[in-house]
Amino acid sequence: MSDEAAAAAAKAVADADAAGVARATALFSKTYDGARPTAAAAAPGRVNLIGEHTDYNDGWVFPLALEKSTYMVGARRSGGAGTKSRVVCEAFEGDVVEFDVAGDVAPLSGDRKWANYVVGMVAMYVRAVEKAGGEGIPAFDAAFVSDVPIGGGVSSSAALEMSTGAFLEALTSCPVDATERALRGQATEHEYAKVPCGIMDQLISSRATAGSALLIDCRSHEVAPVPLSDPSVVIVVTNSHVEHDLSGSEYPERRESCTAAVKAIAAKHASEEKPVKALRDATLGMLASVSDDLDPKTRARAHHVISEDVRTQEARKALEAGDFTTVGRLMVESHASLRDDYEVSVPEIDALVEIACKVDGVFGSRITGGGFGGCTVSLAKREAVDALLAAVEAEYPAASGGVKATCFVTRAGAGARQLEVPAEG
Ligand code: GAF
């Protein structure tokens, strides 16, 4: 990135942060009788370039943070033991959720489920503090606003979890390692949202580096930033507006198929030097060797994961070499694999990918995130963006029953961060 482009990107982040904190502060003051917050934090949503459904198979993923974030502000609450904490969200203004600051709080249900990402993170921080023999987390009031589209498959929940974590760290002046913060977010998803997700969304939201995509090894949690800063190339995120929800049975079923495939491969290859503990350790040859022991669906699911790990590492090399044509080709192959083998796409998303791939100057396009709706990610020449947006506007409604898709262009944004609370007035 040129110095000028880096300065423009940094200014865009600073401006968005200032606006986000100001909005959250206004909501805080309005909700809590004119009080002022003392701590503030932000964390981004994400879009995954390639490496889908590989994270819970100990594999590799290659996401980047969006320039859109969730902002949380708050202050300690006075009162003795038993004082509850409170949180309010811009999207549900007026609904102030009260909860105990304890490590074993029950998840909320119904209309208040949105607060589980906050309550769950608080529970995880309390557990960690108690385990370390500390004094616990003080009760607090908080307010948050989000620029990350909700339910659009770009990890609005991870953004909320990581902003809550960074906020608690600001409030208590106790920083936590960014990977540990992500693990607490993943535990929140498992226990409070009942989504058995991998670690990708929380790790990228917590650890992102502005200007780079992160190649993440989901077994070791090592990350390698790969610059994504060629000004002539852009990432376009397109929301199909098909609601994506991973709390149903499809996501856990995919995980179970992967476990079944690992079991069969590990049994057949038990005598080999390197044990197969996850699909990351398997090859397509190994999969072929157990072909007769697996039902066709399980075989297809494993085929996707094993081949996606290879594509993801090839994409890393191609991006490092500035070979966008190869990155684009791998994205298109990834989409076909997710559509046909992993079966997590929907016709509307397939249509968006087809529309994008027909536009001159688009290197590649694919479904991104958990699937069953949500967004596509496209890699394109900057000069192709207008034609891409026009094609989506003209052609998508025929595939979606009249629904319009929404698109935005993003650079690689920054990870979770503590922010200044501006002085009053
Ligand atoms: C969702 C999950 F939360 C991630 O952990 C990951 O599995 C992704 O789906 C699919 O790659 O976003």
Task: Write out key terms for the chains shown.
11 helices; binds 2-deoxy-2-fluoro-alpha-D-galactopyranose; single chain; 425 residues; eight-stranded mixed sheet; Alpha-Beta Plaits; 2 domains; four-stranded antiparallel sheet; globular; alpha+beta; Ribosomal Protein S5, domain 2
Summarize the SSE layout with pairings.
Elements: H1 3-31, E1 39-50, E2 60-76, E3 85-89, E4 97-99, H2 116-131, E5 140-146, H3 156-172, H4 178-193, H5 200-207, E6 212-217, E7 223-227, E8 233-239, H6 250-268, H7 284-289, H8 296-320, H9 324-340, H10 347-357, E9 362-368, E10 375-381, H11 385-400, E11 406-410, E12 417-419
Parallel strand pairs: 3-5
Antiparallel strand pairs: 1-2, 1-12, 2-5, 2-6, 3-4, 6-7, 8-10, 8-11, 9-10
Helix pairs in contact: 2-3, 2-4, 3-4, 3-5, 4-5, 6-8, 8-9, 10-11
This protein binds 2-deoxy-2-fluoro-alpha-D-galactopyranose.
What oligomeric state best describes the polypeptide chains here? single chain
Q: Number of domains in the coordinates?
A: 2
**CATH fold label of the largest domain:** Ribosomal Protein S5, domain 2
Estimate percent helicity.
Answer: 40-55%
Query: What is Rg?
Result: 22 Å
Write the CATH architecture name of the largest domain: 2-Layer Sandwich
Query: What does the largest sheet look like?
Result: 8 strands, mixed
SS element count, helices = 11
Overall residue-averaged pLDDT value: 95
Strand-and-helix sequence, N→C? HEEEEHEHHHEEEHHHHHEEHEE
Distance between the termini: 37 Å
The beta-strand count equals: 12
**Ligand list:** 2-deoxy-2-fluoro-alpha-D-galactopyranose
What is the approximate shape? globular
Spans of at least 5 consecutive residues whose pLDDT stays below 50 are none
CATH class of the largest domain: Alpha Beta
Beta content comes to 15-25%
**Strand pairing plus helix content: what structural class?**
alpha+beta
